Amino acid sequence: MTAYVLRRLFQMALALLGVSIIVFSLIHLVPGDPVRVALGTRFDPDVHAALTKRAGLDRPILVQYFSWLGDAVRGDLGVSFRSGQPVADLLFERLPATITLAVAALFVALLVSVPLGILSAVRSGSKLDYGATAASQVAVSVPDFWAGIMYILLFSLSLRWLPPSGYVSFSDDPVEWLKHLTLPALTIGLISGSILFRFIRSAVLEALHQPYTRTARAKGLTERQVIWSHVMPNAWIPIVTVVGLQLGFLLSGVIVVEVIFAWPGLGRLALLSVQDRDFTVLQGAVLLIAFVFLSVNLIVDLLYGYLDPRVRQK
Known about the structure:
77% of the residues lie in helices and 0% in strands. It is mainly alpha-helical. It has a domain at 109-263: MetI-like (MetI-like fold, Orthogonal Bundle). α12 runs antiparallel to α13. The protein is globular. The N and C termini lie close together (6 Å).
């Protein structure tokens, strides 16, 4: 297991190195001068030249990359051209909001998909199965921005139950925190839940038709015992795989939903950095997003050995 973890960590490091090269190259191909954008109406040629030299943008691109990479390895992701704040501080200020939204959305997704997926598989071909499958197809087809706008119109403007946008810290006001969290979590969670529903239904349905399930029934076990003692333990691995991918996707920051609900997460920060040509912030945000996604996938792979004794990482 130790060798497997070390090998995966080495692969993560290579993947992050590749991401850094691609992102750094693409960002520098985008037209626009970040120093010029940061100065705005206060543009002065002497100040522009001084700031450009201070940021190292007058050096060759390879020198810039290796200088940035060396600092990034030590935890220094540079300074924002726009605000002058350290990039690492900006990212970790936004990370709690992204984690909160991701966990809440995943909770909604699991709350909907797990019971419906199991029931649809157990009652395959029933009205419940057809209805749940049709509803999941509709939910997957609906764009997240349209769903978010509809929720705002219904729950905020018509019913006035929930605030339309914004963010409140849990430590400041738990009730307002929950109110502001509900709509964005529902918007993402129901779409993710519809994706999870399909995989859960397929995994359980496949396990129901395996020989060990027929053997368990032949022994006289009740249907509940068959489902929870034989079917679900064998269906968890594909389910956990998809859940891990969805969590990694959510932790990466859902840009559209964060913009619609003015949620101060990593996705919205990345979008603002693109608009402001704030290259250092964008590089740091993409690198952090890639690290989070790879870490979640590593954790999922390590869970396989605990969920199924037959799985052995070498």
